[in-house]
Specification:
With 217 residues, this protein is of the alpha/beta class. It has eleven helices and eight strands. Strands 1-2-3-4-5-6-7-8 form an eight-stranded parallel β-barrel, surrounded by six helices. The structure holds erythose-4-phosphate.
Length: 217
């Protein structure tokens, strides 16, 4: 499973990139707004930090506007994947951008049938929002499972990107459900490393090693 960082914060992206196991970054207008910089400048800066797929979202809601913005975003850097909302005009825009070789990430997906439409339009990635579904007592991981099954049935190349992960359990559920990619906030990425038995085990190994030094001395 590929791991993306869900952030527009350069410091977080830099820290995550140091591990050399992060395959991309997802942004959205809310994440970019939090950083207080121009949208395109921020995307350009992110592309300079991490070598991988960098999702940048359009803000137009009509087909022509989304296509225009998508083309402009794709020109920023080869790594850019244009994020398009799963609305009627969005699907039309995805079909056009895909036919031009521009990779798209269809966002705000909450049903397997919406995901089917995105795959038919040639989306590179589909982003089901598991956390936001869980927020309203729906099973986000079941959605991932259903989309993966439908795509497998017909051999669609669109990759399933589990988005809106709120904690380590979401990442595990996404992996078990067969998501190709999971995007996670830096805080959640950091939490994945933790296990108390790792800390206790390491402490004991080092303590035992120190004892052998005393014996040798
Ligand atoms: C990423 O592509 C999504 O925009 C993001 O994961 C949404 O996360 P949220 O539901 O925590 O805002």
């Amino acid at each position: 499973m590929r791991l993306f960082i869900d952030s527009a914060n350069l410091e977080e992206i830099r820290k995550a990139a140091e591990f050399k196991i992060i395959d991309g970054v997802t942004t959205n207008p809310s994440l970019i707004a939090r950083e207080g910089h121009d949208h395109h400048d921020q995307i350009r800066a992110i592309c300079g930090i991490l070598d991988g797929d960098i999702s940048a979202e359009v803000v137009a809601t009509d087909m022509e506007g989304m296509i225009r913005e998508g083309r402009a975003l794709a020109k920023i850097h080869d790594s850019v994947v244009v994020k398009i909302p799963l609305i009627r005009d969005g699907i039309k825009a995805v079909a056009t951008l895909s036919s031009e070789g521009i990779r798209t990430n269809v966002t705000l997906c909450f049903s397997p049938l919406q995901a089917l439409l995105a795959a038919k339009a040639g989306a590179y990635l589909i982003s089901p929002f598991i956390g936001r579904l869980d927020d309203i007592s729906h099973d986000g991981s079941e959605l991932i499972r259903e989309i993966v099954a439908i795509y497998d049935n017909y051999g669609y190349p669109t990759e399933v990107l589990a988005a809106s992960a709120r904690g380590p359990l979401h990442v595990k559920e996404a992996a078990l459900a067969g998501a190709h990619v999971c995007t996670l906030p830096f805080k959640v990425f950091d939490q994945l490393f933790n296990h108390p038995l790792t800390d206790i085990g390491l402490e004991k190994f080092l303590a035992d090693y120190r004892k052998t030094l005393v014996v040798q001395a």
